[in-house]
Amino acid sequence: MSDRRKQEALNAPLDPRSPLVLDTRELGRRPGALKEFSRTVPAPGDLGIEVIGVPEGSPMELDLRLESVMEGVLVTGTARARLKGECVRCLEPLEQECEADFQEMFSYPDADDRSRFADTGDDAEDEETFQLEGDLLDLEPVLRDAVVLSLPLQPVCQEDCPGLCPRCGARLADDPGHDHNEAVDIRWAALEGLAGSMRDGEKDEDNAPRTAGDDPQEK
């Protein structure tokens, strides 16, 4: 997660009514206290990349686990949502399912600086953690990074999508037998027809019978 987003999350006041703001009061700062729950929330805006993403306001299913530790609250979860975008090969609209796992430490506001690090395992490097605002934490920045990083960079409508015809732009999946027998660029077809007419005209003139008056040398 970028330093800018972390700083924004640390400084922004939290709205407890927001579906992505979680209340940790039940944990009571007791190490080992645990809370697991699921909820469905509307997707925040700009949750995607240029070619695919989660539509703003569409339902996202969250499975969450909040665990109280010495340094703060460790949040582990899974997000599931419906993606909409377009196939990068044939440009047709597509829909896919998205599932993203995440884990983030939210430290207590009065935590010692030396404890503001979380080991998430899997040989991941320690990173500076978010802070709780009172008993509240904002899940949106964590959720956003997890979902965006899970998105396919080259989404396709099907794995073997043949794409578009490079000559005419036709969608090849709709016409498996699509072919161009002529190798001539259609932009030159009209010129070729004109050239052929001129050649035929010249042949007609050459084959036409001549009279004595038609000879330019005759006087």
Briefly, what is this?
The protein has 219 residues and is α+β, with helices and mostly antiparallel strands. 18% of the residues lie in helices and 30% in strands.
How are the SSEs placed, and which strands pair?
Layout: H1 3-11, E1 21-23, E2 34-42, E3 47-48, E4 52-54, E5 59-68, E6 72-86, E7 93-107, E8 117-118, E9 127-128, E10 130-131, E11 136-138, H2 140-150, H3 189-207
Parallel strand pairs: 7-10
Antiparallel strand pairs: 1-11, 2-5, 3-4, 4-6, 5-6, 6-7, 8-9
Quaternary state of this entry equals single chain
What is the helical fraction, as a range of percent?
Answer: 10-25%
**Total DSSP helices:** 3
Helix-strand sequence: HEEEEEEEEEEEHH
Counting helices, strands and paired strands, the structural category is: alpha+beta
* CA-based shape: rod-shaped
Report the portion of residues in β strands.
25-35%
Protein name: YceD family protein
Region (Disordered): 1-26, 195-219
InterPro entries: YceD (IPR003772)
Biased composition (Basic and acidic residues): 199-219
Structural features:
two-stranded antiparallel sheet, rod-shaped, alpha+beta, seven-stranded mixed sheet, 219 residues
Outline the structure in words:
- Pfam families: YceD.
- Residues 1-26, 195-219 are annotated as: Disordered.
- The chain has helices at 3-11, 140-150, 189-207, and strands at residues 21-23, 34-42, 47-48, 52-54, 59-68, 72-86, 93-107, 117-118, 127-128, 130-131, 136-138.
- It is α+β, with helices and mostly antiparallel strands and 219 residues long.
- 21% of the residues are buried.
- Strands 2, 3, 4, 5, 6, 7 and 10 form a seven-stranded mixed β-sheet that branches. Strands 1-11 form a two-stranded antiparallel ribbon. It has a two-stranded antiparallel ribbon with strand order 8-9.
- The chain is rod-shaped.
- The model is unreliable at 114-126 (pLDDT under 50).
